[in-house]
Every structure is written in structure tokens, then in C-alpha cells.
Amino acid sequence: MTVRGIDIWRFLHTNAFRIAAVYFVLFAASVLALLVFFYFSTADFLEREIEATVDAEIRGLQEQHDFQGLVGVIHERSAPGRADNMLYLLTDPLLNPLAGNLSQWPREARQVRPGWFLFPIQVSTRNGPETHNVLCSVFVLGNGDHLLVGRDLRDATMFRIRILTTLAWSGLIALGLGIAGGVIMTRNMLRRVEAVAKTTEQIIRGDFAQRVPLSGSGDEFDQLGSNLNVMLDQIERLMAGMRQVTDNIAHDLRTPLSRLRARLEVTLLEKPDTGRYAEALRETISEADQLLGTFNALLSIAEAEAGSRRDTATVVDLSEIARAVAELYEPVAEEKGLVLSFDAPQPVNVRGDRHLLSQAIANLLDNALKYTPAGRVTLSVRSADQTARVEVADSGPGIPADRREAVFDRFVRLEGSRSTPGNGLGLSLVRAVARLHDGTATLEDNNPGLKAIFTLPIAPEQAEPAVSDSFPPLAEGA
Amino acid sequence: MPLSSPGMKLLLIEDDQKTADYIAKGLAESGYVVDHAYEGRDGLFMASGGGYDALVVDRMLPGMDGLALIAALRAAEVKTPVLILSAMGAVDDRVKGLRAGGDDYLVKPFAFAELLARIEALLRRGPASAATVKIKAGALEMDLLARNVTRSGREIDLLPREFRLLEFLMRHAGQVVTRTMLLENVWDYHFDPQTNVIDVHVSRLRQKIDKGFDKPMLQTVRGAGYRLNVE
Lengths: 478, 231
Fold this sequence. Notes:
The complex is a heterodimer. Chain A is α+β, with helices and mostly antiparallel strands. Chain A is about 50% helix and about 20% strand.
């Protein structure tokens, strides 16, 4: 069963419908309570007014009786043509009518007791005979005569019916509006949720470019949608990264693997010669080592990107980490005739993984030392505006501005650097480590040379003290 | 490669048949007597019997996990040194392995020379020496308190890191020590620093301890690492 594309059964089982139904029940109950209150207060008011009228009439007639003949007055009051719906009957003590527009004393009032009572009368109208209710009061006069003053309740009843009808209609209209509002509200909500569901279904089916449409109102649904979209972007980026890695591994490892295989095959084809065999094996081992190096570097990047080492993060002193790395590379610089200067005037505490941060700084320093033929390399650590900043500046040939982003991609090596050993993964790891620590990794012009900048947020003050990188005791025997 | 520790008995616990075969063959070539278990529980049974000088344990094993095996051995007071082999190379994996009672942790894939060097280091482990103040290796003497080093009585001036590098080499005098071992133990780094930084550090140290002496002590072992000769 569907109505304009919406499956009713599904609709009845939606959360939106449930919410709408609850609101509708509450709304209907309030409307009903309001109407009941209105009806009873109105009806009550009418009744009081009739009673007051009859009361006043009796009191008036009583006064008339005290001063002059009552019969005439009643004759006059009950003369046909008067349309105030008042009924009068004056009888003698034996209830024989003397005057009035009632033909006989009502049976309901036989036991004459002062007070109010109701009795029906037959009235002939244009539409034929009708039974009307009469509300009356009875009074025994000083001479024993009985006086009955009443009022035909027909008008009042009619009025009451009209009120009821009106109230019933207003109730129906209110409920109708409530239902319509609920349905519109629910459908609106449902449509937004449906849009999200539809998008995710498309994505599940493999269309990863789909995004949740936003209404632009910035409401909760928009927020949900935009969060989903950000998440999808992130997933897509990661997937693209993975795909690229797979492609690159396939490409980058296939060449050396085929070379390796070919070398072994050719060696086997040649005349057996222990010397050449040994040489071929040595070359094969060195090639395998290179392959493993590339493989390990890719794994490190993947791990940093997956954030799987997050749990090892502690507060560490970045200056100390950089100092240790500088010390590791200092002899390399010296051997190459470069000046490596280290500049970190004070401790800079960050929250992170000491090993990954060491490796990132080592990669930057390694690059700088590798590509700077002569001159100076400076490693500095500074903190400003809650940001720790590691800079590795060199006086080498630099990188053209339009290539400074590309070199962060995996396996990207610039022309002219291919003769230098390296796998094109160093900067990729630096960036992955930076991202893992909510930081950035960029390259700038050092005029002349290149400046690599690695930033990450400063650890909050109250955090535990930095783990110092001072010499731990040597592990015995390891 | 010279036969390092002939006749020493090793137990290899590794489930992959091919890997196990080549490791066992390589170790036998190097003069070790190698027993082999393919499964954790068998391995634990064999190792509990004692009689082995060192165990080489793969971390992921059928039947019983490698770390559980080591923990069980240590709980049973079996103190045989253990080298853990594992494909899991993250720092906390390593920490977990050593905490379970392993003595060294080698990440797969590894160079065979690396495995040999580490087994040798485990086998030649001296008694616990936290209280040791002086180390002697051939003509070299190191005072850990005064932080000075002499060769044949002549004082050698070393930087702090060179001191630690030499300390490690002296504690493993006569053994092959790989670059990775030096990087892990002297610098506490578990990554490959691409450029051969270790070589540069070692050659600097060599300059200081061998310069002016006829017989060089710090020797490069091709395809493996370095050795501090004490003969």
C-alpha cells in the first residue's frame, strides 16, 4: 500500500511517524480538554442565567401579589405573542388553574415544594407538536394559591446544541490540522533521512562519488549530512591513498623483482662458476634488501596514516628528540664537508610518539644532507602560538615552487635526484607523521636552498613531564 | 663467516616450514646444533626439558602463541635466553615481546647475518652486570663511573655517544655486532636511517681507538656489521 511513493507500512514504522503520533495524541488531548472546559463553563452560565431570570420573575410577581391582583398581571405576562419563553400558572390551593399560559399544573410538581424542577410540555409549532423541557420554580402564596414560573428551555437547548456542534467542528478542524501538520512534518523529516539512506545505498553499491545533499539551512540534518560527507571524503582520500600505494608497489616492486629474477635466471644459464654465482647472489641480496627497505618504509607510512601508534603517544621534548637526531647525523655532515648547526634554545613539549618524530626529523635531515653539495644545514626547534616548529634549512639547490607539494607524494623523486640513493618515501612518511600528530609538513624557499617545516601542537601545560631522552642504561647482552 | 659458537644447542620454534628449514640450515652451517618445533605446545614441552643454550621463537604460532610460550617458560623458571622473531615491528609490539620475557626481538624479514649476530650476543651474555664499574676488552679498559677509556694505558678522549658505542662493542667483544643492533641499543632507534650513519660513527670511533696502534681492533665484517677484536 503506497501513497505518492511512500510505503504506508514503512511510514507507520518510522521514528518520524512515532514522534508525530505522540505529538498528535498530546495535541488532541489538549484540544479536547479545552473544548470540554469551554462547553461546561458556557452551559453552566446559561443555566444560571435562566435560573436568575425565573427567580427575579417570581420575586416580582410575589411583590405584585402583595399589592394588587396577581391574576391580571399573569394574564398580561402570559398573553400570547410574547416571545420570552416564560411560562406562568397561578392556581388555587387545590391546583385548579386561575391564570397563566400553562393548561394544567404539571404532575412533576404535585408535591409542591419550593425549589427547582424540570418537566416536559407539549408545544405545537409550525413543524408540529414538540416536547420542550421547562425549568420552573414553584411558590405558595400567602392565600394558599400556588404560583409556578418557568422557562421553556428550547432556546437554551438549541444554543447548547449549537455550542456542541461548533465545538465538535472546531475540534475536528484542529485535529485535522494536527494530522496534516504531523504528516507534513514527518514526511519532511523522512525525506531528509531518506536522502541520506539513498546516498549511502548508492555508495554501498559502489558509487563512491555520491555525497549527501544538504538543504543549506544548517540544521541538525545538514550537520549530520555534512559530517557524513566529511567522513566519506576522508575515506575516499584514504582509499585513493591505498590504491595509489598498491599501484606504486606493483609498479615500483615489479621492476626490481623482475630484474632480480632475470639476474638469477641468466646466472643459471651461464656456465657454472662459483665466483660468478657468489657475485650474483650478493647482488641479489643487496637488491632484496632495497626492496625490503621500500616495503618497510611503505609499512611505516601506512601505520602512521592509520594512526595505529597513537596509543604510544606521550609528552616528549621535541628539542631533545631533534638534538639526538642532529647528533646522529652530525658526523655524516662533517664527512661531507657540510656545517650542521643545531638550534633549540628551550624544551618544546609535544604529545607524540618519540620514534616516529625521530624518524620524521631524521628523514628531513637526511634529505637536506643528501641534496646539499656544499654549505650549511640548520636544524632548529621553536615554539610560538601553541605550535612547535621544526625547521630544516639547507643551502642546496632547492625545489621549484610548483613541485614542492608533489614531492610529499609517495615515490615521487625529482629529476636529477634519481642517482642519489633513496626510495621517494621519506617526505611521505614525514607528512604522515605530521598528520598523525595533528600537525603539518611543508616546504619553503630558503633563498637560496630549501626549508622543510614540520609543525605540531604544543602539549597542554598540566600534562605529565616530558620523558627525557637521556641515556638509558645499556641493555645487557642484547 | 667464522663458526661462532660451535656445538651450542638451539631450539627453533617456527611454524612456517620453509622459513624454519632455511633458518635451521643456516644455523647448522654456522655450527649450531638445531632442534625444531613447528607448534607452540611442542615447543614449550621441548624447551621445558632444558638442555638448550638459546631459543628462537616465532611470535605467532599454532597451538600456543609465542609470547604465551615464553611467559610460561619464565613462570617455570626456565631462564634460557629467547630471541623472538616477529612480523610485527611496531615499537609497542617489541615492548610487549620483551615484557613477556624475551631477551631480544628481531623483526621479519631479517638478514641472516642479523639473526646470527643476535643469537651470538644472547649466547655470550655475561652475568648481569649492573654493578660492574670496569669493562675490559683486550687492551681496552673502560671505567663506567669515571667515564674514561684507556687502550694499553693510553687515555682515549670520547664524546658521550662514542662512549656508549664503545661500551656496547666492548660488552660484545669478539662478536659480530650489526648496524641495527647498534642503532637499537646505542641510539634506541627502531627505524632505518637510510644513509649509513652508523658507519660514519663507527669509523670516527675507530679513528680514536685504533689511531697510533699497530693492530686495529675495530673490524668491519662484510655483509654483517662490526667486531671488536680482542685477540
